[in-house]
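seq as requested:
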Amino acid sequence: MSAGFDLSDRVVWVTGSSRGIGRGIAEHLARGGARLVVHARTREALAGVTAAVESLGSDVLGVTGDVRDEASLVAAVAAIAERFGRLDGVVANVGGAAFGALADLDVERFRRQLDLNLTAAFATVRASYPLLRESRGAVVLVSATGATSATPLFGAYGAAKAGVEHLTGSLAAEWGPEVRVNCVSPGLIRTEGSMQAVFRGSEELAAKAGSVAAVGRIGEPSDIAFACQYLLSDAAAYVSGAVLVVDGGPTEGPTQRILRAIAE
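struct tokens:
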């Protein structure tokens, strides 16, 4: 591994790391020698990822709590400081989409999407800021490709993620040069959740979905993990305020969609 990408002995906190993309990021960084802070809402949910990261030889701390709750975040950061005495990186991974037409979506459910995807991301990195500033560390926020394209039935989620991308630039401008802040924007990624909710457990449907990406497949958690490794590492020392799209690449644009509609 090039020295620029090396995260050996750096302390990195990955929120929402008990499963899915977050777990993939945590395990990948552990393989690279980072010391991991893993997170979930309950101790029971943490057991699997904690054991997995330990088996990879990483020094690991598990913290619990709701990232929408400021007191929980303050307690988590205090635990990190007590255990490691430093914090070099944060991946604010917690998020989730609520399915529903905007005409039928009540205001409270819309607000919950903003809280989970945008406010929680800000609260996480704000609580971490004093330690990150001391270490001249790095932040990776997690957006989604729906932030920049209209996605019917996921309007609240897309609006929240668009806010995450704007927040990335604002934080980078205000917190530099001590703390770099970037964002990764995943496309469709294979997780336990997406395989059930999107593909109904069908590998055939997953392969069909992958055919619309330029690389010919859907993404894996490792694809996002490599992007996070880059943005956290010295290889990205001159990168801040950026949004790195990891979606396999498009195969058509607006003109192609119109032509396809005419042909059909």
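The beta strands are 11-14, 35-40, 60-64, 89-92, 138-142, 180-186, 243-246.
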